[in-house]
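Repro case for the chain-ordering regression, as requested:
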Amino acid sequence: MGPVRRRSRMVSAVTLMTTLSLASACTGEGEPSELRVVSTSAPATVWVDGARRLSTPAELPLAPGRHQVVLVAPAGDSANGGYFIRRESVELAAGATREMRVDLAREKKVVDTSSTPNPAESGSWSRVRPWPVIAVNAHLLPNGKVLSWEEGEAGFNPSAGEITGFSRAAVWDPATDRFTDVRNNTTNVFAGGHAFLPDGRLLVTGGQSIRNLRAPRGTPHTNIFDYRSNRWKRVENMAAGRWYPTSTTLANGEVLTVGGNNDQGITNQDVQVWKTTGGWRYIGKRKMSLYPGMFQAPNGEVFYAGPRAETAFLNPTTGAWRAGPYNRLIRPDNIKTVPSVMYDGVVLTVGGGNIGSQGGFAAASEAESVDLNEPAPQWRRAAPMANPRRHHNATLLPDRTVLVSGGQREGYNEHPIEAAGVRPAELYNPATDRWSTLSSLQVPRGYHSTATLLPDGRILVAGTGNGAAEDQYNAQIFSPPYLYKGPRPRIASAPKRVDYGEQFSVQTPDSSRIANVRLIRLGSTTHGFDMNTRLNTLSFESASDELEVTGPPSGKVAPPGHYMLFVLDRRGVPSVARIISVGAAAGR
Ligand SMILES: [Cu+2]
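-- result from build under test --
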């Protein structure tokens, strides 16, 4: 066969050799004027820059003249079965042409090991689809789009007299399936903390300044990403760097930031708060874990849930700490990477790594919960998962269950996860204290993977790699069993803004069969911890074609900002969510 032009995305086969031919011209910043696939090989779908099919132009050049090509041969199209995934960087001067020869037989093959279970019991995974960045950090924006980014590079800016950085970042629009390049040109925001401000902008604290795995160093940069303009803005620096901090939106709309390593590679002990008027205030010191699990608690304090056995409560006004319940069930020694989530004031922690003797790196299957609504909260053992996991994600779903995806049974960050990866998802129902095992991932996800609940009730699972395991420039989207249990209730209209304690009406033709109304705060996840999400069940009364719903009582149970509003029927089938802002200070 001769050259196939961009318009065609499938090429037919005679041998196992595919040639990619890239030609660069003056069509934009390093964008190839033409990408041809010369193929006499097994069928392949070719994506340019990991984002787009061959039939559309490249959108995310790495840098002027530098491009990525991701090659994916879907299982059904390949004689050998399985998926071939490969990422290639191609340097191209303007007007230059370059050929890539790809031997499909030698590419990495990811075999689909899942059977075809009943999706009403096990849910289902989408096909593996390319993603333009490694989604180490992922965030659902107030406009329903998803922002994700990966590790970038650091450099020294002599004129500014400081270390600067760069991150590749993209915004995905699920409605159009298009990506927008939103790179950050001043900070490597990988390794930062993040939480949404009441107006829906994302506050990003710190990031990586110098990569030194013995003592990684944090940057003091503070960035704000504005979903309305897709722009980053540098704001007031922190007093010291932060690498792996946690940021938490507080009841009054301020954002607490703790933990992580500073610019010298040692623990940053500052306890600091981003004010609603902008800028930082400092409220003392405490030595914290990397990416500590922090939650605004219903009593007004902030709960430090671990990952270590020691827990604590912080008064975010005075900076005073008091001891919390000791988590003694698991966590025998230096446990790490324990996802925690909060639903209706209950914190659940699931699994974690470094179990057993030092260097063993086995993972735990145990789960525990603590109800912060009680006057003297205590940890209680929950049923264990079927699989031990570390580097997994726990995601709150609108039916008040918790989806656990990915993770590995053993091994540290760089451990190959092809064998150690846990492919089946698991779902925890706190109402019954039971886990069920769901369908399996095709690509195992471990360190630096993320999971993000979408307004349509599906979960975007992406990432893995970026200095750990193997880079995964791809994603899979999970449809939970609740999407296969009958017609979805529908929200016809809902207010854009709701105040604390306010009664508001939600129009729905399905009012007679609505059993629950819930809010889920937008996800903002990295390293297995979602710093922003929480779930609130709201009280309501049904009327004809509408629900009279009462907003959450205060910022202590629902910090101001954007939430997905779901209505659910008696079988737990959720509507598509409306994204609304909650709290007097919310929205602009
Ligand atoms: Cu990391």
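Ordering looks correct now. Residues 119-122 form the longest helix (4 residues).
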